[in-house]
Amino acid sequence: MPSPRISTDPAEQDIAVIHRFLAEESKWARGIPVELVRESVANSLNFGLFVGEAQVGYARVVTDYATFAYLLDVFVLDAHRGNGYSRQLMDAVMAHPKLQGLRRFMLFTSTAHGLYQKFGFVPPAYPDTMMEIMVPNAYGAR
């Protein structure tokens, strides 16, 4: 099996692969329109994981590159799981030079806590200070 390669180039991300996974397989973005995926890729720091020419994994970070980052849409396609690709993807995210020295790096996850803990993610120190606006099934209403 060829070694995976990671690209942060937005033009290299396979929108069809990312959209299909998010819209059909993810728990968090089911039904998301392809236009929103395109927009999110265009406005994020992207990490596409490629084996040969095929994109098999993805993560993106929304950030100001100075104080704050939010990791989201992390996945490895089912057929490629168990090869250490999630770890390689997270290694690339955490080593990115523009994501060093941030005051806060957040993510929301219902799975893979063990993976993220290896990179220093822990439950919020002060959860009572966090607030959110959550719109369940945001894309199902479109």
Topology (SSEs and partners):
Layout: E1 5-7, H1 15-25, H2 34-42, E2 45-51, E3 54-63, E4 68-76, H3 85-95, E5 104-107, H4 113-117
Parallel strand pairs: 4-5
Antiparallel strand pairs: 1-2, 2-3, 3-4
Helix pairs in contact: 1-2
As laid out across the biggest beta sheet, the strand order is 1-2-3-4-5
**Terminal Cα separation, in Å?**
40 Å
Number of strands: 5
Shape: globular
Q: Give the overall average pLDDT.
A: 94
Largest sheet: 5 strands, mixed
Q: Roughly what fraction of the amino acids lie in strands? A: 15-25%
Helical coverage, percent range: 25-40%
What structural class is derived from the secondary structure elements?
alpha+beta
Low-confidence stretches: none
How would you describe this protein?
The protein is α+β, with helices and mostly antiparallel strands. The chain is 25% helix and 23% strand. The protein contains 4 helices and 5 strands. A 5-stranded mixed β-sheet has the order 1-2-3-4-5, sandwiched between helices. A hairpin with a 4-residue loop joins strand 3 and strand 4. The longest helix is centred in the N-terminal third of the chain and has 11 residues. The mean pLDDT is 94.
